[in-house]
Structure formats: C-alpha cells, structure tokens
Amino acid sequence: MKGVLKKTASILLSASLLTGSWIGSVPANAQQTEETDEKIQQQFYVSVNGNDNGDGSQQNPFATVERARQAVDEVNDHMTGNIVVNIGAGDYYLDETIQFGTSDSGTNGYEVIYRSSDGIGKANLIGGEKISGWEKCDDTDVSLDLREEIKDKVYKVQLDPEKYNFNTMYVNDERAIMARTQNYEYDSNFPSAGGTYMWSAGGSATNLSYRSGDIDQHSIDGMVHAQERGEKEIAQVMCGQAEIGTGLQTQCRLAKSIPLLIDWIL
Asked: Strand (E) positions, the chain?
C-alpha cells in the first residue's frame, strides 16, 4: 500500500524556460526534436536512481530536479545553445516547492528546456511525501477502543508529531478517508465533506454537547478513554450556517488538528 501526503502532479509536457516565463512545449515531430538537439549547449540528466553528488551526466545523473536547476544556474549566463534537462521516468517526491525565477531562464535567445525524456507523463513530480511502515491493526488497538470487527480493515503508522501535521492523504492516487465519528456516509448536501455532519446542541470550539442518541455509546467511550490517556490526535471540524442573500450558507473550518497516531479506513 502506498500512502502519499498532499496532492500529486505529473509532468505531462516538456517545459521550456524563457526569460521570465515557463512555457510548456511538446516536439511536434522528429524533425523539430532534431532541430532542438542541434542547438544544444549542454544536457543534464535526472533519474530516480541518481545522486545529487554526481555531475548530472547520463552516466551519473542527478536525483532531483532542484539539483538540476542549480546546475543550470551555473552555466546559463552566456548561452551558446539550448540547455536541456532530461527527467527520467519515475516518481520524484518533493520536500518543498521548486522555485524558478528569471535567473533560471535562457539567455542570448536560447532556451532552458525541462522534459520528460522517456515520454509524456512518464516523470511525475509529487508534491508530497511517501509514507511507509504501514501495518494492520491488531488486538492492541482493539484494547484502545477500535471495534473488533473492523481491525483487519484499518491500517496504522506511527509518525513524528514534530514533523507531520496534515489532514489529507492519498492512497494509490485516491483520497483516503480519515477515521472519524460518525463513520463515512455520502451526503448530497455536503458532497466534499466525507460524510454526514453531527450538529451539536451547544458548546464552544473546545467543549461541545450533543443530543442524546446522536452518538453511539462506543464512540462516546472511545473519546472519553482517549482524553483519559492524554491523547491529542483529535481533529475537530467546526461548521456553522448563516442566512446569506437568498439561501442558507454553510461554512466550515478546522478548529484543532494535532495528529500523532493516525488511523485510515480503506
């Protein structure tokens, strides 16, 4: 199972950097590719099996697009031909945003070209981080109020709370459903909410009260026991309604999210 935090983006087109701009381009035919290759000043290579301590050659490719960008910055001041960065097939996970500016662009009328060298869509820049170490829940988790009948359907992984604080995860390119109370049920009134909201009977962002019967006893016991254990991985979504214009508008905000041990129902 592959878990990825944040959104995934793919390199679908070759990309050219001109002065002050990023322009996507795809060779229209072999002749166009040959014409581009004739003007090449230098080529760099990036591979999922590369090493950023290499020289960026085809034999010793870089591991990241950011390292290739830095290499381009060293040789693009007085260009005598195009500079091409060939990004090999595979997934490239980004710890932070790759930033391009005018200093990364071509000079003297030449271009800096970043291209998926193995074909359109073969190289994927993923704006997130791959999470490994997943395992199925067991009887230990049942003792912590997980229902016995669903333990084989729930996976868990221990994350560093100093590093991770997130509320969206993708599993095999599909957005996962975070373990929640109440359980997921599609609601046409809130199609993007991941399930029906429970309406509180009163309270505040830190102390909510609910009507009798709105929450089952198992869920109540689980939350009480979590508080007694001092757990803080509860994400609370607050919603409110107001009369705006001709209709009733609903607005939601995340009131609290400190995920330490996160369970995802698949």
From this structure: 3-5, 14-18, 21-25, 40-46, 82-87, 90-93, 112-116, 123-126, 130-131, 135-136, 154-158, 169-171, 174-175, 177-178, 202-203, 208-209, 236-244, 247-256, 261-265
| 203's tokens | 């309270």
Tokens read off for 183: 């359980």
Tokens of 52: 């950023």
What is the DSSP-derived secondary structure letter of residue 8? B
Asked whether the whole model's pTM tops 0.85, one would answer no
Tokens of residue 143, six digits: 């003792």
DSSP per residue, 32-82: HHHHHHHTEEEEEEE-TT--TTS-SSSSS-BS-HHHHHHHHHTT-TT-SSE
Write down the pLDDT at residue 265.
40
Cα 101 from Cα 231, distance rounded (Å): 44
Backbone angles phi, psi at 6, to 5 degrees: 75, -170
Of residues 46 and 163, more confidence is placed in 46
**pLDDT digit string (tens) for 40-67?**
999 999 999 999 999 999 999 999 999 9
